[in-house]
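User: Fold this; tokens only.

Assistant: Input:
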Amino acid sequence: MAVRCNTIILIIISKKQTLMKDFMLIFINGEGSSKFSPEEMQANMQQWFNWINDLKAKGIYVSGEALLPGGKTVKGADGIITDGPFAESKEVVGGYFIVKAESIENAAEIGKSSPDLPHGGAVEVREVMKF
């Protein structure tokens, strides 16, 4: 009588799972971009499209939108509506992205690639709170 013995070898590879969180990159336009010629504006927009495609290829781009200038601000218990949000300021929120990152420091590193930084722009980085 022959006995067949099958041996199964189980190899477990431990890989540290890092929880990716959502962060909002808020783009604040600088004064430099308002002085673009039509050709410079087109080149800048291409830089934005290239950046978005790079973030998508890395699997860290979730969503984003540009914002039109102007808007309204609603304040206080009476809901007073004024032109805004910052009519007296030259800095305007131009849009936002939601990106995946391990930490706020990593998200800030992503923001350092914003095409508007060389033109006086800024990026505010905030973690998105999940409810």
